[in-house]
Amino acid sequence: MPTKLPATDAVVVGLGWAGAIIANELVDEGLDVIGFERGPWRDTAKDFNIASVPDELRYNARQELMLRTAQNTCTMRNDVSQTALPMRSWGSFHPGNGTGGAGNHWAGITFRFQPEDFRLHSHLTERYGRQAVEAANLTLQDWGTDWEEMEPYYASFERVAGISGKAGNLNGTLQEGGNPFEGVRSIEYPTPPLKQPYGPTLFAEAAREMGYHPFPVPSALVSEAYTNPLGVTMGPCTFCGFCTNYGCANYSKASAITTVLPALIRKSNFTAKTNCEVLRVTLDPSGTRATGIVYIDASGREWEQPAELVIVAAFTLENARLMLLSGVGEPYDPVTQRGTTGRNYAYQTANSVQLFFDDKNFNPFIGAGAVGMGIDEFNNDNFDHTGLGFFGGGSIRVTPIGAAPIANRPVPPGTPTWGKQWKRATVDNYLSTMSIGCEASSYSQRGNYLSLDPNYSDRLGRPLLRMTFDFPENDLRMAQYCTDRVAEIAQRMNPRQMVEKPMKGHWNSGPYQSSHVVGGFIMGSDPSVSSVNKYLQVWDVPNLFVVGASAFPQNPGYNPTGTVGALAYKAADAIRRLYLKHPGEMIA
Amino acid sequence: VTIDGTPQWRPFDHNAADAVDPAEDWQFFTAEEAATVEAITERLIPADELSISGREAGCAIFIDRQLAGFFGTSERLYMQGPFAHGTPEQGDQSALTPRERYRVGIAALDDYCATRHQTRFAELAGDAQDEILSGLERGEIPLEGIEAQEFFSLIHQNTMEGFFADPVYGGNRDMVSWRMLGFPGARYDYRDYVEKHNQKLDFEPLSIAGRSGWRTQG
Amino acid sequence: QGATEYDQVEKGRYLATLGDCAACHTAPGGKPFAGGVAINTPFGKLVAPNITPDVDTGIGKWTFDDFQRVMSEGRGPGGYHLYGAMPYTAYTKVSEEDNRAIWTYLQTLDPVDHLVVANQLPFPFNQRFTLWGWNLINFDKGEFKPNPEKSAEWNRGAYLVEGLGHCGTCHTPKNLIGGDKSSQFLEGSVIDDWYAPNITADPHKGIGAWSEQDLVDYLSTGKNRFDIASGPMAEEVEHSSQYWNEDDLRAVAIYLKDGRNADAQAPTPLAAEDPRMVAGAEIYADRCAGCHTPNGAGVEGLFPRLADTALVNGDSAASLMRVVLAGSRAGATDAAPTAPSMPAFAWNLSDEEISNVLTFVRNTWGNAAAPVSPSDVAEMRETLESH
């Protein structure tokens, strides 16, 4: 029996990017907000001390910053014919924990989606006809919003995070050196592009020669000291190369703890409760009003925190799980395609081409989660898909992330895994190998969804989340096509040897691919096929907002977080401008 | 924990991993087990003109200390049953912790050697050892109580970890692997180097524990 | 006791902020003015008592005259001597009229029932009558007298710095028994293992190179081109000077800029070839440059500048050793909420290494100051650890 506490205006579940942003906006609106975070409070100087954080074994191999699967994991299977089994360590993706969430150890590549992405189903139908779209056998949907609505919030997120980059389309004018495919943007990036290492520079030269338009990958690692609109200051990235899966010692990597929380935690109407896991959202008997949340504290006591407004921003997986556990929305049934909670789960299709050289030294240890050059000629619908047999595409880029040697020892295929030969090959290729990646779209299909697992439960006896996912045929075709395009560029760079790695076969939960798990509680304009409206407000539960990549109906060939941040600002602004005028009602 | 306002700085606060003292005795392995593991690490990473061997670099000490800690017990991992054999895509579903895998695996390996070669693995000649290791890697040698490949891949993984991890964990003695590769170690500022393209930089590698250049010379 | 009328309360609140009474009399997270944390003095610990109007445990039974006597004479009701940790040696300059307003403001506090035993000193220092001798040596009683030669701003600045601001409590060197060395007013002092730098107009060790605006920026936001306030000064800014009004800050700046030692010469730095400098340079590059930048310029508002700053060139390296050993969180203000921290290195760097890197920092980029020895660091390490 949880003990009931005095009510507050709003609770926010999760203090990662989305939660911190919304909490801060609501606090500025004057609401009393309590933010719940299942993990610890993270402090740069303590947790990411410059002398302790560059530690590959601890952070990368042993997953120090990630959620402990002992606390919470998910089960997975490739299709409904299988029995899902738990992911006992993290592999394919790396969920975060503690204030800052996955933002502490993310890479920081911060794209905006393209205008077409928000009306993907309509767009493809208009361009290729209904038949072609149906033939792809996907469950693509429009987002219920559009570029005009999204753009200001992208700008807000970029400003709070100090994103470094080069505009490609500023107020409708194409900019030399930027990405010509991006939607019209209202602001230049807050900080200039980072300096480029050797690999991206070579890649950009080759791409440029081939008529493509390479641009610096937009990055949440600031390129110079930056003070954001909340007054919080970040320092320049030093290319330390211990970035993805690590916290940054320099206050250089934008995350909730380096951009929002320092200002937020000082505000008198905000309180953070860390080491407190939210177990469920409580609803009134009618099921149409959230009355608050129940959480468990570190001493194992359960408490009920009533609130007028509940914001769930617990990352895609826990967003979906909390909704399933709380009985919000009807669980999706892949057979009848009825129900919305868990629907349209999608991922990201990771491809790459490895290049081995003899005569080059890339100093691969110089790097950062998000520094590099990319092209967008083969992303999303930037090329004509007529007759290709698939839709979608990928972001092609070279982003050296550092090369700590437990995980980064490229050798040509066929090299022994141990012994003298292995050692020789390892040394020979360490400095002179590079790779071109292609982070490609992941389109939802009927059989990919999230649900509660019938067999496995967490330490409190609550069912784990079950992920049923495999790559659609559409995406595998796309992967092959795009990887071929990458190989053409690689070829032009004239390596000694080249290894193509298109995504193939079934989704494997073991190797890291990306943490871009999306969907499962998606946005849209039709309550029968979406869970939240375009303000991230839950259909039929007007005082509950569920925010995160869980709202994406499918995933384009871009990293998600720019859009997660924009959606957080969008939801917060809707609450501030519209919802609070008519609390308890769906925003018209 | 309820937090209101910027948390106060607590003097000395840090969150560093404990460094390993290589001089201490084995903490998990028995002497026999240690000998077997040392022998394996000697073969997986042999000494040559490029570097000393994995054993010499301390890989067995590294593994011993890892097993003595949270890695050995899987305490951070979801270890609730049922434990089923899954598809390859479903990853490691073994009910055994790394400690158990080593204890069972080493015993089984030495049993195998006793049966086949009338001696313990460590006593075998290098080539024979290599052969057995290859057999394990290919899954061709049956081990009692554990899949050969499961055992091999774990000790292979841990040996590589030990050889390439920061020396504070007991392996990679004197940053030997980093020197070999040209990896500068735990350095944190390459702003002045990122645009030095295609140049050899020749950094003295740096461990979490520092380096000799920090001490006053002369 | 006087009525708590609006005009007096407002005035008193501002003055109490100027005087930063809360720094000592409010414990972190505690009720305002209900008693502070232990203050370390050369002789042991003292706790600033509860000064809310609680009858039993605060000053609820006091009269204004009792309070005036504390501020002006450092003596409590009945005449007992207060310890100099209560900066009455500065507050004695405060006018009776201002004290009356502070008193009135204190009356509006919620009375808090919290018994504080101020005196936690060991024998014989717990004998208050020994303070009589202390006062003979260290205490010049008396309200501030304006200097007619100087402008009104200068005099206001002097009144604030010498009086309520009690800057000298931290910034003036102390004699063996903890009293101010008045002849060295504001020349820098170590307090609680922090070095409160020289803030005379000395261009090398002091704030001679700062403009008035730099001083105003520092006091109002805790940071400026040169520096970020840490430790006690971060608290001073956070609780007090960020709330001072523009005129008062400017007055302080004018007064400080017109201070002594403007013509002081910088000493010669250690040679770069000195083995300590060589090793220090290596450590700096490996562990410090990531934040403080290779040329010591730092990042404004985030990582303090180390090149050519008073704190680094100070007579005492206490703060430098302290922050490298134990780390430190910069103060947060509304204007600058970041509160970045200097990480702690005690666990990672040896005494010798710390002495080398600090010797390097103190003698590079235009800095010049005495080298730091490993034994200094060892001593500081022990002191900090024993707290």
Report on the architecture of this protein.
Chain A: It holds the Pfam family GMC_oxred_C. Chain A: Keywords: FAD, Flavoprotein, Oxidoreductase. Chain A: This is GMC family oxidoreductase. The complex is a heterotrimer of chains A (588), B (218) and C (387). Chain A has one domain: FAD/NAD(P)-binding domain, CATH 3.50.50. The mean pLDDT of chain A is 95. Chain A has 588 residues and is an alpha/beta fold. Chain A is 23% helix and 19% strand. The longest helix of chain A is centred in the last third of the chain and has 20 residues. Chain A is built from 13 helices and 24 strands. By secondary structure, chain B is an all-alpha fold. Chain B contains seven helices and one strand, in the order E-H-H-H-H-H-H-H. Chain B is 39% helix and 1% strand. The longest helix of chain B is centred in the middle third of the chain and has 20 residues. With 387 residues, chain C is mainly alpha-helical. A three-stranded antiparallel beta sheet of chain C has the order 1-2-3, with no helix packed on it. In chain C, a hairpin with a 2-residue loop joins strand 4 and strand 5. Chain C starts with 5 loop residues before the first helix and ends with a helix. Classes of the chains: A alpha/beta (588), B mainly alpha (218), C mainly alpha (387). Strand 11 of chain A pairs antiparallel with strand 1 of chain B.
List keywords for this structure.
heterotrimer; A: 588 residues; alpha/beta; FAD/NAD(P)-binding domain; eight-stranded mixed β-sheet; six-stranded antiparallel β-sheet; C: mainly alpha; three-stranded antiparallel β-sheet; 7 strands; 40% helix
Helix content of chain C: 25-40%
Strands ordered across the widest β-sheet of chain C:
1-2-3
Structural class of chain A: alpha/beta
The largest chain-to-chain contact, stated as pair and per-chain residue counts, equals:
A-B, 88 and 74 residues
N-to-C span of chain C:
40 Å
Fraction in helix of chain A? 10-25%
Assembly of the depicted chains: heterotrimer
